[in-house]
Design goal:
Layout lengths: L6 H24 L10 H16 L1
Length: 57
């Protein structure tokens, strides 16, 4: 039969779970997309040509 866990052990587990959950939320909030570099029209045109070339291949 299962033995009953102590109150202290239950509180410790819940505090650890809460800390892990908060850490996961903080990491997820900071893991946004990287900032794009400023690109001029020349760079954008190069990218379009590259994509068109890849699609034709």
């Amino acid at each position: 039969m299962l033995e009953r866990t102590s109150t202290t052990e239950r509180y410790a587990r819940s505090i650890i779970a809460a800390v892990v959950a908060v850490a996961a939320l903080v990491l997820a909030a900071n893991a946004g997309p990287a900032r794009a570099l400023e690109q001029g029209p020349d760079r954008q045109a190069d990218q379009v040509r590259h994509v068109e070339h890849v699609q034709r291949s």
